[in-house]
Amino acid sequence: MIRYFEELEEQGYYLIAEIGVNYYDIADKKGISLLEAAKLMVKEAKQCGINAVKFQSYKAEKLASKHSPAYWDLNEESTQSQYELFKKYDIFGESEYGILKEYCDNLDIAFMSTPFDFEAVDYLLYADAVINALYEKQENPNTYCGEKYYCVRDEFILFNDKRFSENVKNVLIVFGGTDPENLTMKVINAIEKTGHKEIQYTCILGLGYGDESPILEKVKDMDYSVKILRNVNNIAEYMYQADIAISSQGRTMYELACMKVPTIIIAQNEREQTHYFGDIANGFINLGLGTEIDEPTITETLKWLIKSEVIRKNLYRRMKDKDFTMGIKRVKRIVLGD
Prior knowledge:
By secondary structure, the protein is α/β, with parallel strands linked by helices. 39% of the residues lie in helices and 16% in strands.
């Protein structure tokens, strides 16, 4: 890892070519094997003066729900679900990436790959370091997991002076980029039964959220103040204004903790449930797996949290005790070998 920063200091830049799974297209166009296509892209990257190449290591069944809707233009790509699309490009595993790592070493170009599940983390352990803030698993000396390695963006540090509000005026609903189980709609339905019409509800849809027209129609007929936004660039500002949030159990929970927003957690899938940071000890009310939770449970939990100032203050204090400002420094020390 030190070599990377030596090259950066010497050159003034460090170029990483994101290959991802684009070798599938190259293989199809040239009529060659996937491995030959991947090697060809590595070789051409080296010839162009690239310092490192990066792949993506995943299996579709561990990355997306089989019912997750498409978030792309179906005129360009006709595949109907995220699972089906990812399945087309998940053939490579430990053997293939091991071959590519050796090939990169021979060409003197750095090999990188993003692991999307535990198995990928395990077989990528020939890397100098594996860092993943979402998981607590740390069975190998070069694996660094857990909250202390989360690298929070500057925008969340800038808005980090949030004070506790005795009254709930704003509730934020945010379920990440895609929301494959459409938990957003389930929460909107639950909100309608709370009776708390005095609250401003702000719902942020990600770039990959499916057809938003049903939820817009739903909100239009509600006698509640519900604002629907999509793919916002300043989400930290909305978190700063929120007195309660309802979210999934992914990376967003770290951002909410950094902003000290008492949060009701609903997991999108079983994989998210392995992100153990989303727990009462860290300021979250975790309801479990979204597909197993009914709307009345969400309604009653939200009503209880709105009324329970003592509980909300306790959750706020637990989040306030967390310090995410050191995550980047810890990761830098690992990378630099300090």
